[in-house]
Amino acid sequence: MSAPLFELSGVHVSTTDGTEIVKGVDLVIGAGEVHALMGPNGCGKSTLASALAGNPDYEITDGTVRLNGDDITEWDPDVRAKAGVFLAFQYPQAIPGVSVRNFLQQAVQARTGKDVSTIEIYMALSEWMEKLNMDTAFMDRFLNEGFSGGEKKRNEILQLALLEPEIALLDETDSGLDIDALQVVAKGVQAVREKKDSMGVLAITHYQRLLDHLQPDHVHIMRDGKIVTSGGMELVETVEAEGFDPFVEVA
After folding, report:
1. Domain ranges of the chain
2. I need a surface site. Which of 138, 175, 211, 216 has the fewest CB within 10 A?
């Protein structure tokens, strides 16, 4: 039997000052599966995503993280990224002086280990920018500099499309988006999944609207650093109607 695509076993995460935020998370994401992680502000969702991507501000103090059976718990962020761990940031950062085109050409080359020509990256960008309703002029703008919130989120999905990761961690990709932008982003994620149907997705969100588009296979509710219950879209409907109060913290 092959190993799961992405597996967390007893994962604890602390900040660099020793404050424990994630307090023992078990999660298994199979190839091609979409999982949703929901919970109130401050419960540890974004901290978990950052730690899984290797953010040095957080430390996995216990437990293991495996990608296709390989223990990546101690891997550096760039090694994880090359192996196929992708994080779409809640608040994407601007990088002055680096164009979207140049950034993605370097990123794709690092991910694949192959040289990618200027024309190849141009053609790929043009194709996906059309799908994401992005002006192709954006490829020569500095990464996220002066971008609106919706433009930044589209750009995150553009990166997802070109990098074709093994596991995509979407950290509140829907936050701050109007209905039209949300639909574009959600359709973009689905288009990437159609192109690479083995890609797993962990979508972190507060809202039903994104999940209506993604239709997750599994939904998990997080409280105080722990997953307290798992199920299907019925959990999303409960959150929409009653908030997170029905889901109590585990001892």
Report:
1. 6-242
2. 175
